[in-house]
Automatic annotation (TrEMBL):
<protein>
    <submittedName>
        <fullName>Alpha/beta hydrolase</fullName>
    </submittedName>
</protein>
<feature type="domain" description="AB hydrolase-1">
    <location>
        <begin position="28"/>
        <end position="264"/>
    </location>
</feature>
<keyword id="KW-0378">Hydrolase</keyword>
<dbReference type="InterPro" id="IPR000639">
    <property type="entry name" value="Epox_hydrolase-like"/>
</dbReference>
<dbReference type="Pfam" id="PF12697">
    <property type="entry name" value="Abhydrolase_6"/>
</dbReference>
<dbReference type="InterPro" id="IPR000073">
    <property type="entry name" value="AB_hydrolase_1"/>
</dbReference>
<dbReference type="GO" id="GO:0016787">
    <property type="term" value="F:hydrolase activity"/>
</dbReference>
<dbReference type="InterPro" id="IPR029058">
    <property type="entry name" value="AB_hydrolase_fold"/>
</dbReference>
């Protein structure tokens, strides 16, 4: 994404959420997954803007340029931030989310249906993985140890690369270096660890029946976060009526591992929403 974009801030009860806005037209709001940065969407934003959409990309609480003062983290908190940003920018909007960001966007669609006209879900977590209680305790211990100073930033950068199985963006190494640098900033590793320890997607799964917004979902065929990627995608299709795409040779980040698949399919989805909304439907009011 462009380095000359102006970073803006949305005040929230516990701090400020950073975001950028590019383009004009109907509003699209994108949010990264846990441990990621706004630049994860650098290959998706330009084609959307060129097609006549206004695209806002926000950082998670404690990530990127957002404040590290937040005490509350997770899908619900992020979903509330998304609803607040849509209201601030003059929605309604299509929400784009990766990983836990997809869960947060889906929760927001259930919580505030008038604000969300569509969902674009990438490597989506809409429920907790099926693991034993012992494995869950081990995972929490692992987060506490791995995401600690002084090795936490490097450990996460390495793990992020392991999630990017298959094809990689030409700028993959640059992005991973930026993640490592960001996590070394004061307070960011602590915020990330707090999120990882608190994260559950149960509140999202509990509200899936309330989701009325049309959705499109992209799942990487090599995504290591899911033991059966096709089965998880089929469950998402059934649960919220999503249009599913299993993207070959891609891990957890379809938006930058296979933008030549994600961007055209997303544009077709958005254009369909725009056509069905009519002249007085999904328009930018900001």
């Amino acid at each position: 994404m462009s380095t000359h974009q102006t970073v803006e801030f949305l005040p929230r009860p516990e701090g400020r959420i950073a975001y950028t806005v590019t383009g004009t037209g109907p509003l699209v709001v994108a949010v990264p997954g846990m441990g990621d940065l706004r630049s994860t969407y650098r290959d998706l934003v330009p084609p959307l803007v060129a097609a006549g959409y206004r695209v806002a990309v926000t950082d998670l609480r404690g990530h990127g340029d957002s404040d590290t003062t937040f005490r509350t983290h997770g899908d619900v908190a992020t979903g509330q931030d998304l609803v607040a940003l849509v209201e601030h920018l003059g929605g309604p909007a299509v929400l784009v989310g990766n990983s836990m960001g997809a869960g947060a966007a889906t929760w927001a669609a259930a919580e505030q249906p008038d604000a969300v006209v569509g969902l674009v879900l990438l490597g989506p977590f809409l429920r907790d993985p099926a693991v034993s209680a012992a494995r869950a305790r081990a995972n929490r211990w692992l987060y506490r140890v791995t995401l600690a100073r002084p090795w936490g930033a490097a450990a996460w950068a390495g793990f992020y690369s392991s999630l990017t199985k298959g094809r990689k963006a030409p700028w993959h190494a640059e992005h991973v270096a930026a993640l490592r640098t960001s996590m070394r900033e004061p307070g960011r590793l602590r915020s990330f660890r707090d999120l990882a320890l608190a994260l559950t997607h149960a509140p999202v799964e509990a509200r899936l029946r309330e989701v009325e917004a049309p959705a499109i979902a992209f799942m990487g065929s090599l995504d290591p976060d899911f033991s059966d990627q096709a089965a998880e995608l089929a469950w998402i299709e059934e649960s919220i009526g999503a249009q599913g795409h299993l993207v070959p040779d891609v891990g957890h980040y379809p938006q930058h591992q296979s933008p030549e698949v994600v961007a055209p399919a997303t544009l077709a989805f958005l254009d369909g929403l725009r056509s069905s909304a009519g002249a007085h439907g999904w328009v930018a009011r900001g």
